[in-house]
Amino acid sequence: MSDTSQGILEIDALQGLLTGLCTAPVVVDRWERLEPWAVARVWVRGAAALPRSVVVKWVPDGQREARAAPWRLRTELAALQFLSEDLEVELAPRVIAADTAARFLVLEDLAPRVSLDQLLRRDGAAAHGDRLAAFARARGALSAATAGRAEAYYARRAGLGPVDAAADRAGRLAPLRREAIQHASALGAPPGGRVVHELATAMEALADPGPFLALSNGDAEANNILLHASGPADARLVDFEFAGYTHALTDAVCLYVPGPAWLTVSNPTITGLADQYRHALARGIPQAEDDRRYGGDLAAACASWALVRLHRFPLLDTRPSGDHSRLQLVATLEAAARTGEIYQALPHVTGWIRRIAAVLRRRWPDANQDLADGGRFRPYQPRH
Which domain of life does this protein belong to (predicted)? Predict the structure, then answer.
């Protein structure tokens, strides 16, 4: 029942692991690959201790020799066990079984929940305001529950293999900011002295979070939260392969600035998502109620993300007119600048980011479009 030539789930190994766990024969009735990931929903029988279906994540054969793949699996295992066993919070799926040697995890099946991304694409943001609010609360709740517990997490993670806590804190995409600054300079928008100083101070604040140091799943986007399509907004966060302790407000950026999937997002200060997130965060990090600290660090996190996305400029510049990725980059820069303006933070960096966006609008006439709320593009319009 397995097809290892394409990295498909190894059924015999799974049945053996679950049989050993339950001390009774467990048989896989059927399974369904959840494309495009190495993830499957699996229906099992033979042990009353097991649910009728589970979700299995594995490392495909073609990636088994890649250093990053098993590292990500161990990170997800540690993070999920840390949340459910050490902290006893219900924010993510429970781990039912794991075989790190065979490189797969057996997780709680969260169905009938579906991804928020799927709902937004199908129905639009206006139809799912309550689920967007649940998304914002869940992001804040994850940071609130995990703040101050980094030592316990890394003790668990180190038990599964080497881990670099400093790299987690700095953010795995941080080096891309340097490339972005070079691109801005080449475009004719170099950062002046005040911008350089203000940007350095902002990035130092992100690298030294203080009380804002909290666990992130490493990809705080709408595709990584599962909710019921109707009824109670009982949210669960998924995909912890890049989990680590970093500045909590990096998880709020997705509410203010478009992620890779979207052309636009809503203005969270108008929709109320900003308050939903901040109130949930403050339950575990009281310093989130300090307007100056909160606004400054949030503006820094949004600016950092905008610069990370700007590193793609050389690629986007080669694409044909009308490519949505160009428009998305302009939207990302302007949304990051808007966040600084809302919170009256980083005025020099904010002005610089606005200048870069203006240069790109002139360079790419196809991207010189109205992105304001209520304009041509609705909130959470997918990038094509």
Answer: Bacteria
